[in-house]
Design a protein that fits this description.
The chain is α/β, with parallel strands linked by helices. It has one domain: Rossmann fold (3-Layer(aba) Sandwich), CATH 3.40.50.300. The relative contact order is 0.17.
Length: about 250
């Protein structure tokens, strides 16, 4: 689905580097690292929002050869910060996620049907007539998540999607994403290491702009995480679960 080789992207003095990465359908991936390590820049490159050098193959085609609308049908992105601040109701905001599937002249019956399903799945159906600008921060985040998922794209990129969302809806959202990931590639930037270890199957760790580690769950260990986050990391294991905590101070 996604193949990256010798990818480099610059943002001022910051340099992102990904030597090689292959992502396929069914990958549910946590993207982790300290602030400024390159996580958001990486998602921007994959989404095609940032210039890069290197080889990027998306769904069997060179990324540079795909038309913009073709890319939008394949990839949907929820950025860490959004400038969406318009006086639209929630239903319309989520409906606009379907735009890449339209002919540009309007939405069809299928678009409205799928939109209702997504609104219900993200527990925002009861908000459908409310103005987006009037919602709480957590409600806005759930609506924006619904909008991204409504595109029904095979690649979903989410930058800190759980910010501001209460615990119950965090749990429900992760369950929804895990269910969707069986037929998609889903990349999620997340800062809660314990939550990442508990819920995800694969982990990309960025250190100072470099993709330092591409691991699956059984490869995670305290020493490696301590090096990545530059702080002493320890595991507490309980049954099949793992709680990750830091012991204070630098490693």
């Amino acid at each position: 689905m996604i193949e990256l080789r010798d990818i480099t992207a610059l943002q001022g003095d910051f340099r992102l580097s990904v030597k090689e990465l292959i992502l396929k359908k069914g990958d549910f991936v946590a993207v982790l690292g300290n602030n400024g390590s390159g996580k958001s820049t990486f998602l921007s490159v994959v989404a095609g929002l940032k210039k890069f050098s290197g080889e990027y193959i998306l769904d069997g085609s060179k990324f540079s050869e795909l038309p913009p609308m073709g890319r939008h049908r394949i990839i949907s992105l929820l950025p860490q910060q959004t400038s969406l601040n318009m006086p639209f109701d929630v239903h319309y905001v989520v409906l606009t996620g379907r735009y890449p599937h339209t002919d540009g002249r309007g939405y069809g019956e299928r678009d409205f049907q799928v939109t209702e399903e997504v609104l219900r799945k993200f527990d925002v159906w009861h908000l459908r007539e409310r103005q987006f600008n009037e919602l709480s921060g957590g409600e806005k985040q759930r609506v924006l998540l619904a909008r991204v998922i409504n595109r029904d794209s095979p690649v979903i990129l989410l930058d800190e999607p759980l910010g501001g969302i209460d615990l119950r809806h965090q749990h429900d959202t992760l369950d929804l994403l895990k269910g969707l990931s069986t037929e998609r590639v889903i990349l999620v930037v997340i800062h809660d290491i314990s939550l990442a270890v508990r819920e995800f199957d694969r982990f990309l760790f960025f250190v100072q702009g470099d993709l330092a580690h591409d691991l699956v769950k059984h490869q995670l260990d305290e020493e490696r995480l301590s090096r990545v986050f530059d702080v002493k990391v320890s595991f507490i294991r309980h049954g099949k679960g793992v709680f990750v905590y830091t012991e204070g101070g630098r490693k």
